Amino acid sequence: MWLQIVDLLWSDPMSQNGCISNEVRGGGCYWGPDVTEGVLGKHNIQLLIRSHECKQDGYEFCHNRRVLTIFSASNYYEVGSNRGAYVRLGPDLVPHFIQYQANRSTRKLTPRQSVGQTERSALRALREKLFAHKSDLISAFQEFDMEKTGWISLNNWAAAVENVLRLDLPWRVLRSQLVTSAQDGQLDYHSWFNELAIKEPNIEIPHQNLLETMYRHHSNLETIFRIIDTDHSGLISLEEFHQTWKLLSTHLNIEISNEAIADLVASIDFNKDGSIDINEFMEAFRLVDRSRAEME
Fold this sequence. Notes:
Elements: H1 2-10, E1 12-13, E2 19-21, E3 29-31, H2 33-42, E4 48-50, E5 59-62, E6 67-70, E7 84-89, E8 95-100, H3 111-132, H4 134-144, E9 151-153, H5 154-165, H6 171-178, E10 186-188, H7 189-192, H8 208-228, E11 235-237, H9 238-252, H10 258-268, E12 275-277, H11 278-295
Parallel strand pairs: 1-3, 4-6
Antiparallel strand pairs: 2-3, 5-6, 7-8, 9-10, 11-12
Helix pairs in contact: 3-8, 4-5, 8-11, 9-10
């Protein structure tokens, strides 16, 4: 019986099919999408909602959107490392997510002030996500704009946004918070991105999609840096990098030699001082992303 309780508490989904022991947690297992389909189909269940696994945005779908992870503890690793979230299910059983980022000041707020701040934080995160998918959204808008006028109806805007982001949010309700420049029910979708109030860095970007990619992954990379920086010194030492890669290789069942890890550290350590700071870490991923774009 106790083994079943451990499995319920500590098992995590994985992308590949099958079921293997969860050596990272030391309990439970990893299960794949085939297991999810079999169990949910057997018991006539549409969606499995679980927790106990930190997610950058506070929630995450996997296994063809049949498994939903909810993680309510924001700032899990340290302040700013991740958002928290909870989910509401209405009569239609469609999940609606509320994200938040707690800080010391929120403890002094009244319930009404706290809700207002949570809503503002959620809208800010939503604007960031919309901007990060700018190219995909413009392509979706253009499918409704057959005559290439640069304008679409607000209903088509809502449909296109959902088709791209797949968040199951009430976009028509949120429209008044996200769109203010519409005229007679029509939206200039190229100009609309200026409303999101996200300032682009004053740097030269050689490829159109690179800036969006950096926005999309910037917070994730910062979180990864903080996780590897176990002593919170602001620098990743060779030992910290080595331990993290060994843990990842065990988790992903990938063999990686000590020499390969040392070579990887050397390639990221641009100033050759024996450690990696946040700028070197971010730059390494930017260069990888740029090289990939040049090959396409």
